[in-house]
Amino acid sequence: MTDKFPSVLISPASMAKVDRDAALSGLDSYGLMRRAGFAVAAAALRHYPEAVRFVVLCGPGNNGGDGFVAAAALREAGGNVRVFSLGDPGQLRGDAAKAFADFDGAVEPLEAYRQEQGDLVIDALFGAGLSRDLPPSVTDIIDRLAEVDVPVLAVDLPSGLDGATGKPRPKAFQAQHTVTFVARKPGHVLLPGRGLCGEVEVFDIGIPRRIVERHAGIVGINDLAHWAAMLPRLSDASHKFTRGHLTVFSGKASATGAARLSGLAGLKAGAGLVTLASPGSAVLVNVSQTTAIMIRTVDDIDSLQDYLTDKRMGAFVLGPGFGIGEKARAFALALAERRLVLDADGISSFKEAPESLFDAFASGETRLVLTPHEGEFARLFPDLAGDDSLGKVEKARAAATRAHAVLVYKGADTVIAAPDGRALVNANAPPWLATAGSGDVLAGIIGGLLAQGTAAFEAAAAGVWLHAKAATRLGPGLTAEDLASAVQPFQAETDC
C-alpha cells in the first residue's frame, strides 16, 4: 500500500477524468483494473486469513470488474470463492467484461447469497460514482448482514455511500476495511461515510502524479501540507510585540469563562499579547482569574471605538459567552476593518440580518472567520442547511462565498472553506474533543494565529488541526480548561 496523495480528496467526477486521461495517455486501463483487483485480494488475505469463504458481490460496472479480478486472484491463492452478481454479467462492457471473461468460475445471482459463519464479504457492487439509490436486492443484503457477525471489505467505497457527500443512498454496507485507489474520496472522510468505511487503505495502481494533480481540485484533507509553510516562525529577533495582539471580548460577570478559555488558547497558540475586553461589571471577576492575560474595560461602542484607535489591535474574538443581541451586532460591525473570529453568540446575533454582517466584510482581504456548529450554521444560512442535495463541503463552500468569510463548519468532520472555493475536511479530531467549551478554545487558537499575521484560511485550518492535536495528546476525559492549557504552537521539527 502506498498512499501517494495523503492530502488529496478526489471527487467521483474528478476521478472519472483521471481514469479517462490515464487511458488517453497510453496506460492499459484493464491493466489498472487488474492492479486494483489484485490489491483487493491481497487486502482480503492479509486482514482475513481465517476466512472460510470469500464471497465476492459484483456490480454492473467497473467496481464489479475489480471484484471479478479479485475473485480470480483469491481462487489462484487457494481460497474458497463464491461470486454473486447484480444483474447479468454477460451484459458487462469494456474492462469489466474482460474481467468477467477472465474469471473461470461459477457466478450466481445476487439474490441467491445467504450468509454463512466464516464468510468474508467483498463488496464490489458500486463504487464512489454511485448516483442513485440502491435497489432492494442490495438493501436486503445490507439489512441481513447488519444482523450477523460477517465482516465486509469494501472496494472503493461501501456500496450505497455517495462518494461526493458521504451520505448513504438510502443505506450502505458497514465495512470493516475499505480498499480505494489513487486517493481518498470525500465520502471516505465526511460523516457518516467515515464510520461506514472502517479502516481505509489507499493503493497506488500506477496512474502518474501529473494526471492526478491535474484533476485533484481545491478540496483536500486538512493537514500540514496546506498551511505549515504559512504559519509564523520565531526568530532571535522575535518579541511579544512582533507576535501580534489578540483581543477577546468577555461577557457579563456570570458568563466570563468562555472568553478566558479563548484568551488562554490564543496566548498558547503564540500570540504575543492577549487582552480581555471586559464590561465594567465583569472586570473584577476577570482580573481575579487571569495572570498573563491583560484586562481592559470596554462597556459600549464608544469605549470600543476608543480602544480601536490603537492600530496594533489587529485580531479579535467575539462571541464566546458574550450574549446575543444588538451589542454583539454593533461590536462586530465596528470591527469590519480588523481580523475577526465570530463565534457562538456573535453568530447567533445576526440570525435576522446576516447580510449586514456579510456586506461589512465584503471588500479587501478575507478578514472574517465564522465558526458555526450545525445549529448556528442554520441560523445564518437556513436555505443551505435545509438543502439535502448538498453535502457538507458544498454547503460550507457556498456559505463562505456568500459571507465573504472563511467558514469553519464544526463537527466530527469539520470543514474549513474559503470564499475562493478552497475547502479542507479535518480528520484528526478524537471523539473526546466534543466537550463543553471546546469551541471557545478553537476560536482562541484561530484568533491567536490571525494576530500573528497568518492569512484567514490558513489560520482557520491550522487552528482546527492544532485544536484536535492538543485533544489527542490529552486523551479521553479532557475538559476545556485542560484543552486550553495543552494548546501548543505549530512546531515544524516535531509536527511534520
Folded structure, characterized:
This protein has 496 residues and is an alpha/beta fold. The protein folds into 2 domains: 12-217, 3-Layer(aba) Sandwich (Rossmann fold); 224-495, UDP-N-acetylmuramoyl-L-alanine:D-glutamate ligase (3-Layer(aba) Sandwich). Helices cover 40% and strands 15% of the residues. A 10-stranded mixed beta sheet has the order 8-17-16-15-14-13-12-9-10-11, with helices on both faces. The protein has a 7-stranded parallel beta sheet with strand order 3-2-1-4-5-6-7, covered by helices on one side. Strand 15 and strand 16 (415-417) form a beta hairpin. Helix 1 runs antiparallel to helix 8 (209-215), helix 2 packs across helix 4 (94-102) and helix 9 (257-268) crosses helix 18 (438-451). It is elongated and about 80 Å long. The protein starts with 11 loop residues before the first helix and ends with a helix. The mean pLDDT is 96.
Q: Count of DSSP E strands? A: 17
Number of DSSP helices?
21
User: What percent of the residues sit in helical stretches (DSSP H or I)?
Assistant: 25-40%
User: What distance separates the N and C termini?
Assistant: 21 Å
Numbering strands along the chain, what is their spatial order in the largest sheet?
8-17-16-15-14-13-12-9-10-11
